[in-house]
Amino acid sequence: MIEAKNISKKFGDRQILKDFSFVFEKGKINMIIGQSGSGKTVLLKCLVGLHKVDSGQVLYDGRDFLGMNFQEKKEVRKEIGMLFQGGALFDSQTVEENIIFPLSMFTDMNEEEKRDRANFCLKRVNLENTNHLFPSEISGGMKKRVAIARAISVNPKYLFCDEPNSGLDPQTSIVIDNLIKEITDEYNITTVVITHDMNSVIEIGEKNAFIFKGEKWWEGNKEEILTTENPELTAFVYASKFMMELRKKS
User: Fold this and answer.
1) Pair 66, 53: CB distance under 8 Å
2) Overall fold of domain 24-48+70-249
3) Which of 220, 243, 247 is nearest to 233 (CA)?
4) CB atoms < 10 A from the CB of 236, how many?
5) pLDDT single digits (tens) 72-90
6) Which pLDDT tens digit goes with each residue over 226-235?
7) Taking 90 as the threshold, does the pLDDT of residue 1 lie above it?
8) Which of 9, 72, 167, 171 could disulfide-pair with 17, CB 3.0 to 4.6 Å?
9) Burial, 151: exposed, middle or buried (Cβ in 10 Å; 0-12, 13-18, 19+)?
């Protein structure tokens, strides 16, 4: 479980996040949704310590992450898997080398153990025998699956996904959504997904928070999201549904 308590963040005079609080539950896909520029990705970076907050707390299973020293934070980061927008694979490294990278950084595994772990993770995302390919030699959907394999290589307790379906076609997006859901259930991970894709929210979102102008405007499950009377959320949901229908017809 991860708890965000009263997180606020400014860049200069611009208020990006204001008093944001939310409990990300273990074993569930916790989604942060909202329009582009609403503060979603800034929130993610605050949760993992890439941005320093102006005020508030982030608790990992009760541990005050923001109050830790460098070494203490490093220990928590060993428990975190990250799926970056676009995959963020290293172009100069093979698929196998990309997956081994966090293992070399955060574990004491020897080379054989790291290769075995990479092979296990590749099998888990249905990408066996791609070890020696480079990112330029695989599709966008495959890159995302490699990125997921890399994210789970360290057996994380917490998985963060920033716009996991960005740039993917609808069918490949469903594959990625299902894979994230399966991994969350299988390993009982606290999964945090940042998205504005309503397809993903309706398919796999179990606990959702809607950010509007840097504030938590609503929270609830995927069934409640379709019956909410929150006007800003309703406008976001049905604008997204309209765009989905247009995409299906094109």
Assistant:
1) yes
2) Rossmann fold (3.40.50)
3) 220
4) 22
5) 998 998 899 988 876 688 9
6) 788 888 888 8
7) yes
8) 9
9) buried
Enumerate residues 6+ apart whose C-beta is below 8 A from 91.
Answer: 134, 135, 136
Check if the beta carbon of residue 199 is closer than 8 Å to that of residue 244.
yes
Cα–Cα distance, 16 to 39 (Å, whole number) = 6
Bridge partners, residue 32, by sequence: 194, 209
What CA–CA distance (Å, rounded) separates 122 from 96? 8
CA distance 26 to 190: 4
pTM of the model: 0.88
Quickly state the pLDDT bin for 249 (edges 50, 70, 90).
very low
Which pLDDT tens digit goes with each residue over 112-129? 999 999 999 999 999 998
Asked whether the beta carbons of 194 and 44 are under 8 A apart, the reply is yes
Q: Domain segments of the chain: what residues?
A: 24-48+70-249
Which amino acid is residue 80, in one-letter code? I
Q: Which tokens is 88 given?
A: 């963020």
Whole-angstrom Cα distance, residue 13 to residue 138?
A: 43
C-alpha span between 134 and 20 (Å, rounded): 40
Nearest alpha-carbon partner for 22 in 7, 37, 41: 7
Is pLDDT larger for residue 8 or for residue 233? 8
